[in-house]
TrEMBL record:
Bilayer-crossing regions: none
Keywords from the named record: Transferase
Entry keyword Transferase: yes
Species of provenance: Clostridium butyricum
GO molecular function, one term: acyltransferase activity, transferring groups other than amino-acyl groups
Full protein name: Acetyltransferase (GNAT) family protein
SUPFAM superfamilies: Acyl-CoA N-acyltransferases (Nat)
Cross-referenced Pfam families: Acetyltransf_1
N-acetyltransferase domain mapped to chain residues: 4-147
Superkingdom assignment: Bacteria
Length: 150
């Protein structure tokens, strides 16, 4: 595999335009519910993790502190360009977010997993919580999952 650089960027970074395109092309466009995706209310205060190869963003995930006391966080918009699937990039990004959670004293991480990714997250230590639901935003069937961070 080519060398990949992981780093957090701000949502006002020029590279974030690539993030917007990658998020839309993989997470929303195939399902036809959203015609255009730009920003949402969480982008301004989230941690935006990108994987970069040759100045191109090939992966992205977002980590957002959720609680007032910053003990709960959420991972969302996890996406890897199809040319780079099954290369360990997704698990690398999860490990980086978990490390960040430990540094920020976050105790519990939530995410909403697509049905086809539940086993991936279980292998990473996440547990299912409650029943599946349909996302209002994307129309996808999702499973809420969590990880206790120690």
């Amino acid at each position: 595999m080519e060398d990949i650089e992981y780093r957090y960027i701000n949502f006002d970074n020029a590279l974030f335009k690539q993030v917007i395109n990658l998020r839309y092309d993989i997470l929303f466009k195939p399902y036809g519910k959203i015609q255009k995706y730009t920003y949402d209310q969480f982008d301004s205060y989230s941690y935006h993790l990108v994987g970069i190869i040759d100045n191109n963003i090939v992966s992205y995930s977002r980590f957002t502190p959720l609680s007032r006391d910053n003990t709960v966080g959420k991972i969302s918009n996890v996406v890897v360009h199809p040319d780079y699937n099954n290369m360990g990039i997704g698990i690398d990004m999860l490990k980086i977010h978990i490390k960040t959670s430990l540094e920020k004293k976050i105790k519990k991480i939530y995410l909403n997993a697509r049905i086809d990714t539940i086993e991936f997250y279980k292998k990473a230590g996440f547990f299912t919580e409650s029943s599946v639901f349909i996302s209002d935003k994307s129309g996808l069937t999702l499973q809420k999952m969590f990880l206790k961070v120690d």
